[in-house]
Write a structure and sequence with these properties.
By secondary structure, the chain is mainly beta. The protein is built from no helices and 4 strands.
């Protein structure tokens, strides 16, 4: 993608969200490719750790929890 497509100066960081939506049978019914200037937007997603996932202990060592 050229920087001129978003009218941003060359080298400007860009955020990209590529989302697909599917019907219950798994057929892809929509693809959305969104790109935006990284200095103008902030994106956040809540992340929930599964109870069986390893936990990072002190010193970056994975421990069971």
């Amino acid at each position: 993608m050229a920087g001129t497509d978003l009218r941003l100066p060359r080298g400007t960081p860009v955020l990209r969200i590529l989302r697909t939506a599917a019907a219950p049978d798994g057929t892809v019914v929509e693809v959305n490719d969104t790109r935006m200037s990284a200095d103008a937007y902030e994106i956040g997603y809540p992340v929930t750790r599964h109870p069986t996932a390893a936990h990072q202990g002190e010193g970056g060592v994975a421990t069971g929890r």
